[in-house]
């Protein structure tokens, strides 16, 4: 009996240590580096869009690190309808979304967009963690709330992917009228576990998630392990959630479908499931298809011939992969218009 218990203990200890090391590897591979975009890709700037102005802005986040970005506006828009505070997704900074930012400006808004800690224009040795995105957004909101020129404007949060997660968990901040979250995940630890061990051995997702939550607690203390469901349940502010039914980056069944079931009867949460769309539902079906095919081809070629891969990068037709879905973009603007018209 004692021998059996010793064997069981050794097995459990070995499992614990293996999961710990695996989780630590996942943690460091994603969070322990900067994200400065892909040097082979072109990121649009204000100069690529007629009449789009970009004024440099900067503010401090939680540890004193300077976050930088721009206030985007139209030269002819003296009285904007509202101020949109935009939170970008994982992998690059806010200029990966300049086409969308320009759309919002053309719709009559000012847009304040910045790069998070450890990303592109902003300071920080590394990303730190997905919870850092929520912290950075809260400091962006504080910056906006202290600026006299923004005082008359309603403030709306908009974010995609990691930014969607940040938006859902910061919408309760003072001065914010509502939010639009596109493909935002429920939990940072959960989505990271789903996209690492979960893709190969789904049964072990829970173990990696547990360790990632522990690491987050060590890194962020009381700000650790933000949860989008809890945050949306704690507010009555209007929220618009958009998800692609075919999204595999932020797994739709494990995120979008869960949010739909949780909030389908909610009065303050609007949910739109974009049929056939993947992780960028604001793009046209054609753009998503072209993007997937293009980057899949490049990924395969990089393993064989880096020079040939670079040629493929140079041949990218950006007009095709940034083509927006006008219906989805109109839905977003219509929602924001509805929010700012409420007293």
TrEMBL record:
Pfam families from the UniProt entry: Hydrolase_4
Single GO MF annotation: carboxylic ester hydrolase activity
Name used for this protein in its record: Lysophospholipase
Domain of life: Bacteria
Keywords tagged on the record: Hydrolase
Residue ranges of every copy of the Serine aminopeptidase S33 domain listed in the record: 79-221
């Amino acid at each position: 009996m004692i021998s059996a218990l010793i064997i069981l203990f050794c097995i459990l200890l070995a499992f614990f240590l293996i999961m710990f090391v695996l989780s630590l590897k996942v943690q460091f591979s994603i969070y322990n580096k900067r994200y400065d975009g892909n040097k082979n890709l072109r990121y649009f700037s204000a100069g690529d869009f007629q009449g789009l102005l970009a004024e440099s802005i900067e503010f401090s986040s939680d540890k004193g690190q300077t976050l930088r970005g721009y206030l985007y506006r139209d030269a002819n828009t003296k009285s904007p309808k509202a101020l949109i505070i935009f939170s970008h997704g994982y992998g690059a900074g806010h200029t990966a979304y300049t086409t969308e930012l320009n759309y919002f400006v053309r719709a009559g808004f000012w847009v304040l967009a910045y790069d998070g800690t450890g990303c592109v224009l902003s300071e920080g040795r590394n990303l730190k963690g997905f919870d850092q995105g929520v912290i950075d957004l809260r400091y962006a909101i504080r910056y906006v709330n202290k600026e006299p020129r923004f005082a008359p404007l309603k403030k709306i949060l908009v974010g995609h992917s990691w930014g969607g997660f940040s938006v859902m968990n910061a919408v309760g901040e003072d001065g914010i009228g509502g939010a639009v979250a596109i493909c935002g995940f429920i939990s940072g630890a959960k989505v990271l576990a789903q996209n690492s061990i979960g893709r190969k051995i789904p049964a072990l997702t829970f173990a990696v998630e547990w360790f990632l939550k522990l690491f987050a607690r060590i890194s962020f203390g009381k700000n650790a392990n933000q949860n989008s469901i809890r945050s949306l349940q704690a507010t009555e502010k209007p929220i618009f959630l958009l998800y692609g039914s075919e999204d595999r980056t932020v797994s739709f069944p494990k995120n979008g479908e869960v949010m739909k079931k949780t909030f389908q009867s909610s009065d303050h949460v609007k949910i739109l499931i974009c049929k056939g769309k993947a992780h960028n539902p604001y793009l046209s079906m054609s753009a998503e298809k072209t993007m997937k095919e293009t980057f899949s081809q490049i990924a395969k070629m990089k393993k064989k011939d880096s020079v040939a891969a670079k040629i493929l990068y140079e041949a990218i037709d950006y007009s095709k992969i940034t083509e927006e879905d006008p219906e989805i973009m109109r839905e977003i603007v219509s929602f924001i218009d509805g929010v700012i018209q409420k007293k």
